[in-house]
Amino acid sequence: MSGANPWTLGGLSLVELGRRLWRKSQQDEVMGRAAQLSYYALLALFPALIFLTALMGLFSVQSFMPELMSYLRNVLPADALSMVERFLTQVAEGSGANILSLGALGALWASSSGVTAMMDALNVVFDVKEDRRPFWRVRLIAILLTIGLAGFVIMSLALVLYGPTIGRWIADRMGFGIAFTGIWNVLQWPIIAGLMLIVVATIYHICPDRRYKRWRLITPGALFAVIMWLVVSLGFKAYVDNFSDYNKVYGSIAGVIVLMLWFYWSGLVLLLGGEINAEIEKPAAAERKVASPEKRRAKQAA
């Protein structure tokens, strides 16, 4: 992002920003691109689960599967959760080194293809073309970003599953006492939210092929994407569990449909957050175009 403060919204009012966001999201076909992202996310999910459950088998941590399912139950609708749980149980029974290596390669390639699709979508959102980075560099960035996202998932799961244990370990090592453990059990959730902000901000920084960009941890678009993802996930779960019966319509593939819808809404809020940042950046981008090289150097020197 440019040097301008993003929280001034580029000089736009909230009403004007909303009007531009609506018009630009239709122009960029954000809903169609979110559907594309949901397809790639579903394609990448099961190889990634094969890899993770195989890794769990190697290190004998299947005992934490019920606890993991209890946390996923708070976010995923029941149909999607049951499908994922059956898959994890079946794969965990055959965990081993061979399935680990095959699952790692499949997950890495499929997930990086999904990240490549996300890069293409964000190029459209930020009105840039993929003309400065060769194909191999795009794929390498996608693979590295995929590994980084996997690291974020692992760190988040570690905080969720082992948060109290980590808090007690820190308290014992640093001599903070029992009070710190209680504070830590509360702080682990803001830490996870902060990790999500870092991930979204990094996606907005790396994925578009932009010449002028500055990494910022918290931007209006990133904050919108994180908050709306939580709202959409919890709201969609409540709707599916209480007001809709996808089994009557889709039968045995209801879990797949529900999971794809969840991926769709997640991709949609990610792209809308990018649209917000792109609209805020436009005044600064216009200023750069009309500024002379001397003015640009003076600004940098100042």
Q: How much helix is in the residues? A: over 70%
Beta-strand share of residues: under 5%
What is the mean pLDDT? Answer: 75
H/E element order: HHHHHHHHHHH
Give the total of beta strands: 0
The backbone outline, from C-alpha atoms, is globular
Oligomer: single chain
Biggest β-sheet: count, sense, barrel? none
Tally of alpha and pi helices: 11
As a whole number of angstroms, the C-alpha radius of gyration is 21 Å
The residue ranges in which pLDDT falls below 50 over 5 or more consecutive positions are none
Secondary-structure class = mainly alpha
Distance between the termini: 18 Å
Describe the overall structure:
- This protein is mainly α and 302 residues long.
- It contains eleven helices and no strands.
- The protein has helices at residues 14-27, 30-58, 65-72, 78-93, 97-125, 135-174, 178-206, 220-242, 246-250, 254-290, 293-301.
- α5 (97-125) crosses α6 (135-174), α7 packs across α8 and α8 (220-242) runs antiparallel to α10 (254-290).
- The protein is globular, with a radius of gyration of 21 Å.
- The mean pLDDT is 75.
Q: Topology of this protein?
A:
Layout: H1 14-27, H2 30-58, H3 65-72, H4 78-93, H5 97-125, H6 135-174, H7 178-206, H8 220-242, H9 246-250, H10 254-290, H11 293-301
Helix pairs in contact: 1-10, 2-4, 2-5, 2-10, 4-10, 5-6, 6-7, 7-8, 8-10
List keywords for this structure.
302 residues, mainly alpha
What's this model, at a glance?
The protein has 302 residues and is mainly alpha-helical. It has helices at residues 14-27, 30-58, 65-72, 78-93, 97-125, 135-174, 178-206, 220-242, 246-250, 254-290, 293-301.
